[in-house]
Amino acid sequence: MKETNYLDYLDAVRHASLMKGEPEWMLQLRLAALEKIEELELPVIERVRYHRWPLLQVPDFFLMEEPVFLANDFLAADTDAPRLVQVGTQTAFEQLPMELIEQGVIFTDIFTAMEEHPELVEEAYMQLAVKPDEDKLTAFHAAFMNSGMFLYVPKNVVIEEPLEALFIQNNQEATSFIKHVLIYAETNSAFTYVEKYQTIGEISNAANIVVEVITKQGAKVKFSAVDELGEQTTTYFNRRGHLLGDSQIEWAIGVMNQGDVIADFDSDLIGEGSHSEVKVVAISMGKQIQAIDTRVTNYGRHSIGHILQHGVIRERATLTFNGIGHIIKGAKGADAQQESRVLMLSDKARGDANPILLIDENDVTAGHAASVGRVDPEEMYYLMSRGIPKEEAERLVIRGFLGSVIAAIPLKAIRNELVETIEGKLTK
Fold first, then answer.
1. Are residues 61 and 198 in the same domain?
2. Residue 382: domain span
């Protein structure tokens, strides 16, 4: 197979940036990243070989997607809810209540944000959380990003109603899905954000998705995600928080994709007293491979980073959890805890739960727990002894096993949908 020479795309990237009306800084960021792709290595995901996965497919910048028509299922039931829906590279639905607009909240597609609020986007876009030159996949993302969303919540603004984003990958066309989500929470702001990924169509494509959450002093963000990309989609996820002093991010992520996935779910606890809670639930089935690195790095004094990962594997699938807790020198009083559990429902399934603790400071608290096993026979016996059939008893045990993450998702409709998705995967 002929290797791609990414420098051949210099003119295409320039032209695409011009057509999208991007500011000069964005064009220069793209071009600098494009020149680095070849020299950078792929990120290391322990115990998973993915180097031959088709993750570096250049998108067709000039693809003319058909106008988007959405069924009512994709649109908001509550017409006043803050919501954004994107299909492929197009924004199909965008809504923000007037009272939030008057408070300075911005919730729009990434290209509109660059045009209307260039200074805000430039301050945070791949500057604080994820850097373009970290590895081959971040550089590829920076060079070829073709859609995305920007959410900005000003200082002291508290939003009670969750902000929801639905991103639908269009596999009716042959092009990569390179999505960038940038969330910027100013000092002492507080809100809940929920995002969901789905796929329409059956053409094989790649997805490269980077999510950056920047929390300034005292900001509090509840971040929930339900990932349901299709079987023909090979995906790289990179979600990362950059937390300043006394700020907090609560992550609740449901990894329910059907295709092969590698993922980095990371939190950098920069400021003193910053706090990250990461809860991940995943199901792998068929011949699917999913590998998830969840990392919390304590830079700040008295920072707290907790990881909870639970996963279920069926048939010949593979699921790997790598939990990394790293306390940097100087982070006195820091706390790093992690728990990774994998439940296997097949003799041919493969599961790994790998805890890693890196401690470079004294006067800290750190711990880990990890297990890979089968459904507890005592729990099954207890349920079946009360007249519950074996299949239903097994589902109840699994629901309880995954329930800690499900319960953390703030929107009841999303919780119910995740439960339905889990039930569907377990009964196929």
1. yes
2. 377-428
Q: Is residue 348 part of a domain?
A: no
Q: Mean pLDDT throughout 154-163?
A: 96
How many other C-beta atoms are found inside a 10 Å radius of the C-beta of residue 77? 9
Q: Is 32 exposed, middle or buried (0-12, 13-18, 19+ CB in 10 A)?
A: middle
Query: Which residues in 233-245 are b (16+ Cβ under 10 Å) and which e?
Result: bbbbbbbbbbbbb
SS3 string, 294-313, reads EEEEECCCCCEEEEEEEEEE
* 393 and 263 in a common domain: no
CA distances from 341 to 224, 323, 398 (A): 20, 11, 12
Please enumerate in sequence order all residues whose Cβ is within 8 A of that of 384, keeping only pairs 6 or more positions apart, or say none. 390, 393
Average pLDDT estimate for 141-145: 97
Regarding whether 174 and 39 lie in a shared domain, the answer is yes
pLDDT digits (tens, 9 = 90+) for 310-322: 999 999 999 999 9
Q: Is residue 335 a part of any domain in this protein?
A: no
Number of folded domains that form the chain: 2
Phi first, then psi: give them for residue 62, nearest 5 degrees. -105, 15
Give the model confidence (pLDDT) of 55-96 as tens digits.
Answer: 999 998 766 565 555 545 555 555 688 999 999 999 989 999
Task: Please check whether residue 151 lies inside any domain of the structure.
Answer: yes
On whether both 264 and 411 belong to a single domain, the answer is no
Q: Cβ distance 249 to 213 under 8 Å? A: yes
DSSP assignments along 52-81, one per residue = TSS--PPP-TT--PPPP---GGGS-SSTTS
Contact 198, 417 (CB under 8 A): no
> What angle (nearest 5°) sits at the alpha carbon of residue 303, between those of residues 242 and 329?
90
The secondary structure element, H or E, covering residue 314 is none
* Strand pairing report for 147-153 and 205-215: unpaired
End position of a domain, from candidates 243, 270, 297: 270
pTM: 0.94
* Assigned domain for 177 exists: yes
- The set of residues, in sequence order, having a beta carbon less than 8 Å from that of 137 and lying 6+ positions away, is 42, 43, 55, 56, 208, 236, 238
> What span, in angstroms and rounded, lies between the C-alpha atoms of 72 and 55?
32
Both 52 and 192 in one domain: the answer is yes
Give me the amino acid identity at 364. V
